[in-house]
Write a structure and sequence with these properties.
Shape: globular
Radius of gyration: 15 Å
Number of helices: 2
Number of strands: 2
Oligomer: single chain
Low-confidence stretches: none
Strand content: 5-15%
Strand order of the largest sheet: 1-2
Mean pLDDT: 87
Largest sheet: 2 strands, antiparallel
Helix content: 25-40%
Order of helices and strands: EEHH
Length: 76
């Protein structure tokens, strides 16, 4: 696990989604309150457990967030 990078506080709350620092490539920021549920759902899938429709919608939302930072090339 990498060390947690502490950046300057932002004036407005940073939401889950595509985020860019200066002129760097766009990346994805996932808020802590969203990260744990996504990790749990992905772990359930990796364990071969059947997921329900709500979990499926949440995973589809995560896929959309991850794909949202693509600036060039194909999009999902």
């Amino acid at each position: 696990m990498q060390d947690i990078r502490v950046l300057p506080e932002q004036q407005t709350r940073v939401e889950t989604g595509p985020t860019r620092f200066g002129e760097d490539w766009t990346g994805v920021f996932i808020r802590g309150d969203a990260a744990l549920p996504h990790a749990m759902q992905l772990q359930r899938m990796m364990n071969g457990e059947v997921i329900g429709p709500v979990e499926r919608m949440q995973i589809e939302s995560l896929i959309a967030v991850l794909a949202s930072c693509v600036e060039c090339g194909p999009r999902l």
